[in-house]
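in:
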């Protein structure tokens, strides 16, 4: 199969391989003469599309033709524009879909003292201010001998914040860092402060509320003569505590998995994203939890998710999440549809509607059970929506902070980064999987070659169980981990 019409309503098809002008392709029994070269992931017209007419993909409108388009012509940014605007009215039209029947599954994880499940047993150093980043990094370098037995790693997540911030920025930094301290994948945490920053240790402890003195230790560098020596002593205490935990069998219903995409291409909505959606439905059918974020990348397709909100109150909160993000854009003088990125366009994504219709498929078909603010931790099982931007590291950080044990990251272009939680890279196409084995963990490309989506979703569930049971992602193997915190205000 050289090209696919995703939905019967579509007036465009997506090339599954590079197609050459002058050749002929057959789509659903109809032979079409190619008027242009059409790269893999890009669109070609199936019928005459007049200027001003709607371009339909996924059964949804993804833009308007800016000129007449003949069958077999390349359909992209040179002849299509977005139909989005800042103002949209939403109507709740509740829809419920059956979840697949799935046999009970378990994974080999860690059971924490508070009853929470974890998939890693690591030591984390959390700097409360960027000034102590070098100290945190030195402590990690000089204490790798503590990574032994059931302790699987020692990491720090540096950032430039914690001082010279006010208002919401200050609160968000404090909240995200506290969420990371609470993350169950950390068997022991050293909170590292300087002493004069405006995110004081007292403020941070207030944000944390309660903590286990054996699991969480605090160090203010200005209060000791040798912060590395003092930090090493505390890490040894944490290692002694964390080393007591051993892997044991835990129901898959306790898994929390984040869903994210980046470097998308024209196959994202055909292969990787719907594969993640099938996985999400299966995990939720088991009693597990998934979290979908990237609010700006829902613009234009948000109703596909809104109508699956479990009740009208949840629907109203989902609408407010999207409207608040649109207000954020307009308050900064930006249009809501200034997307996709150059890499997205090179991969075949033409408009934000095009990108969004693919993006939301990661949410599968389950009911939306809760809507979380930026920095909230997950409370309800099932599918959750989380307010966050599209930026890869910012959104992956907030997914980790929300309590995700791991993150599924679909990509058609590839990226090496990793979040604090294990980050599973899922390729939309087989050539990327073969080209970048040091970046990509899982290949959804076979879907474009005929693999049923349900089979791919089941295959991904198997892989997630492997990762939860201790198999490292390639970004973990390379030590690629980082965080980024949402910032909106001034720097003092």
């Amino acid at each position: 199969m050289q090209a696919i019409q995703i939905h019967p309503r579509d007036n465009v098809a997506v090339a599954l391989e590079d197609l050459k002008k002058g050749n002929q392709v057959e789509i659903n029994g109809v032979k079409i003469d190619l008027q242009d070269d059409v790269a893999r992931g890009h669109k070609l017209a199936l019928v005459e599309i007049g200027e001003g007419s709607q371009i339909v993909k996924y059964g949804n409108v993804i833009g308007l033709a800016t000129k007449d388009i003949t069958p077999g012509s390349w359909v992209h940014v040179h002849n299509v524009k977005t139909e989005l605007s800042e103002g949209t009215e939403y109507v709740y039209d509740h829809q419920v879909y059956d979840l697949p029947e799935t046999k009970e599954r378990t994974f080999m994880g860690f059971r924490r003292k508070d009853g929470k499940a974890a998939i890693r047993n690591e030591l984390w150093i959390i700097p409360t201010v960027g000034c102590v980043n070098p100290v945190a990094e030195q402590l990690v370098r000089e204490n790798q001998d503590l990574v032994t037995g059931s302790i699987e790693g020692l990491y720090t997540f540096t950032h430039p914040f914690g001082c010279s911030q006010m208002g919401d920025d200050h609160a968000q930094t404090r909240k995200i860092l506290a969420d990371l301290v609470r993350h169950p994948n950390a068997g022991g945490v050293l909170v590292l402060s300087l002493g004069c920053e405006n995110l004081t240790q007292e403020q941070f402890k207030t944000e944390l509320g309660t903590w286990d003195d054996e699991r969480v230790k605090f160090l203010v560098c200005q209060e000791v003569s040798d912060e590395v020596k003092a930090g090493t002593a505390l890490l040894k205490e944490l290692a002694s505590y964390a080393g007591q935990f051993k892997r044991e069998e835990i129901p898959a219903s306790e898994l929390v998995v984040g869903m994210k995409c980046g470097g998308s291409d024209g196959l994202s909505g055909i292969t990787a994203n719907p594969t993640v959606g099938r996985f999400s439905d299966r995990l939720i059918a088991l009693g597990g939890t998934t979290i979908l974020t990237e609010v700006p990348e829902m613009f234009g397709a948000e109703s596909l998710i809104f109508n699956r909100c479990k009740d009208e109150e949840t629907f109203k909160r989902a609408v407010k999440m999207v409207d608040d993000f649109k207000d954020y854009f307009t308050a900064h003088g930006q249009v809501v549809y200034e997307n996709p990125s150059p890499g997205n366009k090179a991969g075949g994504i033409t408009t934000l509607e095009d990108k969004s219709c693919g993006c939301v498929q990661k949410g599968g078909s389950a009911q939306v059970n809760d809507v979380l603010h930026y920095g909230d931790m997950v409370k309800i099982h099932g599918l959750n929506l989380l307010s966050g931007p599209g930026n890869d590291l910012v959104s992956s950080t907030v997914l980790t902070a929300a309590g995700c044990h791991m993150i599924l990251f679909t990509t058609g272009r590839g990226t090496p980064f990793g979040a604090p939680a294990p980050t599973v890279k899922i390729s939309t196409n087989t050539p990327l999987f073969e080209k970048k084995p040091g970046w990509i963990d899982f290949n959804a490309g076979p879907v474009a070659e005929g693999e049923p989506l349900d089979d791919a979703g089941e295959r991904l569930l198997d892989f997630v169980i492997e990762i939860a049971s201790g198999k490292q992602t390639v970004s973990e193997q390379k030590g690629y981990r980082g965080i980024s915190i949402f910032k909106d205000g001034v720097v003092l």
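note: The radius of gyration is 24 Å.
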